[in-house]
Specification:
mainly beta, 7-stranded mixed β-barrel, two-stranded antiparallel sheet, 3 helices, 9 strands, globular
C-alpha cells in the first residue's frame, strides 16, 4: 500500500465467526519540522466538519457576532479520537484512543481553537502513561490541554507560558508546558502548547493524593 502524502490509516481485522479486532491507527506525515514534538490527532471528519453538528462549525444556533455563542464549538460535546505523539527524535511517545473536545472561553470563537484530550476506559486506557512534561515528575496524566495560547494565539503564542514559568521555582502550583506541532487528520493545524488541565487530577497528580479527596 504505497503512501506518498500525509495519510491516516486505520486497519481492522475481520474473520469468519470471530469478533472484529480493535482498530489500529497510524498517521503518516511527510516533511514535518523536527525541532519540536508532533501530535497527530485523527477522528471521523463528520465529527468536526458536518455543517449541522461538526465541532468546528457554527451550526444552526450560533449568534451572528463574535464569539458566536450557541455555535457547535460552544457545546460540551466530546468525540472519540486517536492521538499520537512523536518526539523530535522520531520516537513515538503516545499512541491511544482518547476523547476530544473544544476547550476555552472566548477563544472558541477564533478560527484556531484549543482542545482538551482525555483518557477514558470507554476509549481504551483511562490514563495516558507517558511523561509529557520533562520539568515535572509526572509519568501519567488523565487529561491535558492543547492550548493555542488564548487571546495571544495570533501574536507571540507564548505569553501565558512565560508568565507561569516565572514562578516555576517558587513552590506555588503552576501548569507545565511543551510546545508541539499539531496535525488533524493529516492536515497541519499549527503550533500549540501542551498544558496541564487544572482540575482535581492536577492537584492529585502534583501532590500525590487521591483525586476524590480534592474539593476544587
Amino acid at each position: 500500500l504505497p503512501i506518498r502524502k500525509n495519510t491516516v490509516l486505520k486497519v481492522r481485522a475481520f474473520g469468519s465467526h470471530q469478533l472484529p479486532g480493535r482498530v489500529a491507527t497510524q498517521t503518516y506525515l511527510f516533511d514535518v519540522p523536527a525541532t519540536v514534538p508532533t501530535i497527530a490527532l485523527s477522528t471521523d471528519p463528520t465529527y468536526l466538519f458536518d455543517s449541522t453538528k461538526g465541532l468546528f462549525e457554527k451550526g444552526p444556533n450560533a449568534s451572528p457576532d463574535f464569539p458566536f455563542v450557541g455555535a457547535n464549538f460552544w457545546k460540551k460535546t466530546e468525540i472519540p479520537a486517536h492521538i499520537e505523539l512523536i518526539e523530535s527524535t522520531g520516537l513515538q511517545g503516545i499512541d491511544q484512543d482518547v476523547g476530544f473536545r473544544i476547550f476555552g472561553a472566548f477563544s472558541r470563537g477564533m478560527a484556531k481553537k484549543s482542545f482538551r484530550i482525555v483518557a477514558r476506559s470507554k476509549y481504551g486506557p483511562d490514563r495516558i502513561e507517558y511523561p509529557l512534561f520533562p520539568t515535572k515528575d509526572l509519568t501519567s496524566v488523565r487529561s491535558f490541554v492543547l492550548r493555542q495560547s488564548g487571546q495571544d494565539a495570533y501574536k507571540t503564542r507564548f505569553r501565558d507560558v512565560l508568565m507561569t514559568q516565572l514562578i516555576a521555582d517558587s513552590g506555588v502550583d503552576y501548569q507545565a508546558y511543551r510546545t508541539v506541532v499539531v496535525y488533524i487528520n493529516g492536515a497541519y493545524w499549527g503550533l500549540y502548547n501542551i498544558r496541564e488541565k487544572i482540575n482535581e487530577d492536577f492537584i492529585a497528580d502534583n501532590h500525590g493524593i487521591d483525586p476524590d479527596d480534592v474539593n476544587l
